[in-house]
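#structure-requests
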Amino acid sequence: MIFSCSENRAEGNLVSKIGKGNVVAALCCVAVGAMLATGMGSLAWGQVATVAATPPMGWNSWNHFAEKVTDADVRSAADAMVTSGMRDAGYVYINVDDTWEGQRDAAGNIQANSKFPNMKALGDYIHSKGLKFGIYSSPGPKTCAGYEGSYGHEEQDARTYASWGVDFLKYDLCGLRDLMDKQDIQKANAMMRAAYVKMHQALKKTGRPIVYSLCQYGTDNVWEWGAEVGGNLWRTTDDISDSFRSMALIGFSQAGLEKYAGPGHWNDPDMLEIGNGGMNADEYKTQMSLWAMLAAPLLAGNDLSKMDETTKSILMNKEVIAVDQDRLGKQAYRLGPLQTWVRPLSDGSKAVAMFNFVTDDVPQTITVPLKDLGFTGPVHVRDLWEHKDLADVKDTLIVTPPKGGVVMVRVWAKK
């Protein structure tokens, strides 16, 4: 989980150091067309049409527990997901990240290690709570943490995951990089794409709908081809950390990627850090708001069993979640040089988020003419964090977000 990406500000997105520069369209034919020619079948937008129709919501073990995660931790997270109200707010996936893997048996079947005595029983427990079960692997021989990967065992592992009741697979490039590093850039990228296609086809063969999450840190502009290899979501950046700088760099760099997102295929700027303690409440509201505007997956990464009321109120703001989960599936675009983002919604309204990304200076007033939002007359405005309707606005929105904070509103044309 240490793959390095750098920001290309001239292009307005992130590019991986391994894939910096544009790769010709023919490269996709090398990686994907070859699969079709060898009878792998046609590619699809995910496993089935209903998988990830809206951005997945849930929890992932890595940000808080990392390599120390256990079966007991995961069961505790499932319990807390229900008792806290998060499940009812829309969070359903309980995802076990790296370090669950053990050795393979004599037949090559992957086994869990001693931290996870029975993965089928764990999956059954998660499902008994009305939740879904997620797991992690790598297309390489080893995972990021050095555990057993799926290289050479893709169909076997997919069958095993299905037998355990897995509903979500995070497939992390890490372990394949040692093999890719021995190739030139074009062959390396072709190898990567082929590996993701291979697991996609293996998941399809199981007959079980499984959300397929590509984790390869934006390598080779994955947003341009992630759906073609079966991905339901794909990481666009390096790993997030629990700091405003990391979160802001990742979140605000998503401008320009909106055309690649939609039902069944989402840009993924990595997990939520809300509740882990490295940012204040306003800064965590910024992450929640920005991720919702981006139609990003909402995967909490904190200890769900130890949430204070502020953390709960941020993670379970139903009005902000409704923006993230809007069925139209359009990702927000950035308006102008300041951090004002606009997202069209299915009912004809628009979500508008105005951020103050300066944390060490006086908060700046942001002025947004309604005509820049596509409105030609007065509008109704509702503040999604204050949970109240504001006075109708005739021609200009004027707000002053707090330091590192946000004002997020929903705007309707007044009839």
